[in-house]
Design brief:
The chain has about 375 residues and is mainly beta. Helices cover about 10% and strands about 40% of the residues. It contains two helices and 27 strands. Strands 5, 6, 7, 8 and 9 form a five-stranded antiparallel beta sheet that branches. The termini are far apart.
């Protein structure tokens, strides 16, 4: 009889535990359902790996180039513009005077029945219409994809709000190119000394070989090994005093404030608002409350539908806030995402596009 009683108690406990777990899961599911919205058709589809400021416009690349006036704070308004005609535009960067485009050129392998990369081409434009090669870099702007080893290419910029602080860089790594970094100036380029980079928070032997992002803060360009970096600069004219960057699954910050907090996955992109630091990761978007510009250790739940659109099935490739002095709820924010694999794990191909959040709608949607 005692054995039966124990079994009954154990069974009842399991029922209670199961009910609690079911209730908890249901709460999460119902919460996400309540936040779901009817999605618009995307106007800028496919991979978007950079959102850059150039003059008074925002520019994105998805194989082609689209632009939108940065003052247009409502949905849409993106127009396809001119781009180099030799291949697909992979990524963009900009400085005070020029927009730069890294183009991928491929050819068809008839035996394998697929396109294979041939080279990268680096172009510049002073108006976003007419393009010319950046002849000052390796290969006169024509970089073989594989020459005695794979040649990796990285194009990035400070992406500052203040035009005077916008600077662009191009890094080559491997093969016959060796390891070299250039500061770009239209069709010309200056080779940077290997000691020019303060990479993360520690010195490196060959910084030109590892840089993938940079910011302008306190009168200095700082370089990082990750793709995600931003500052607290505002469109109201306040210069940056604190910078934020990813390193693995951690967010570091330096300048006027110094520290580190954990992220829930590998950091890929970062954006600043006055009350939250937005973090794009390989497992969706998160945000950390800011207190005196210091991100707090734990990410909090969004009141918007951010987590159900930029969800854990995706890598958030880019984030940009047009007016960072505003709160997250009152700012216009752009993002893009992609996924790896077949998409069978509930990820959807039509979610690979440019996304936006507008205060007037209080929701994330396809742009």
């Amino acid at each position: 009889m005692k054995v039966k009683a124990v079994k009954k108690i154990a069974f009842a406990s399991l029922l209670v535990l199961g009910a609690a777990l079911f209730s908890s899961c249901q709460d999460v599911i119902y919460s996400n359902i309540r936040k779901e919205v009817e999605l618009r058709s995307a106007s800028v589809q496919s991979d978007v790996r950079s959102i850059v400021r150039f003059k008074n416009d925002l520019y994105v690349a998805n194989g082609n180039i689209y632009h939108k006036n940065s003052a247009v704070n409502f949905v849409g308004g993106w127009g396809k513009t001119f781009s180099p005609s030799s291949g697909k535009v992979l990524v963009l960067a900009a400085d005070s005077n020029f927009l730069y485009a890294l183009v991928g050129v491929s050819k068809q392998d008839e035996k394998e029945g697929e396109n294979v990369p041939v080279r990268r081409e680096l172009y510049c434009s002073s108006d976003g219409i007419f393009w010319s090669l950046v002849t000052g870099v390796y290969g006169f702007g024509l970089i073989p994809y594989n020459s005695l080893g794979l040649i990796e290419t990285y194009l990035f910029c400070t992406n500052s709000i203040a035009e005077a602080n916008r600077k662009a860089y191009f890094v080559l790594r491997g093969g016959t190119a060796g390891f070299v970094a250039y500061q770009l100036n239209g069709p010309f380029a200056t080779i940077m000394p290997t000691s020019f980079i303060e990479a993360d928070t520690k010195p490196v032997v060959n910084p030109a070989a590892v840089s993938r992002s940079c910011v302008y803060c306190n009168g200095t360009v700082r370089f990082f090994t990750s793709t995600g970096a931003c500052t607290d600069e505002t469109s109201a004219g306040n210069d940056a005093t604190t910078y934020y960057y990813g390193n693995g699954s951690s967010v570091f910050y330096g300048g006027a404030n110094v520290g580190i907090v954990g992220a829930h996955a590998t950091v890929y992109s970062i954006a600043y608002t006055s009350d939250y630091l937005l973090v794009g990761t390989t497992s969706g978007i998160s945000h950390h409350p800011l207190i005196s510009k210091k991100p707090q250790a734990s990410s909090t739940t969004f009141v918007t539908n951010a987590e159900s659109t930029l969800s854990s099935q995706y890598t958030v490739l880019t984030l940009l806030v047009t007016q960072p002095e505003k709160t997250e709820a009152e700012a216009v924010i752009y993002a893009s995402q992609n996924y790896t694999g077949s998409g069978s794990n509930s990820a959807q191909f039509d979610h690979v596009c440019l996304w936006s959040y507008y205060p007037i709608t209080r929701q994330w949607n396809r742009e």
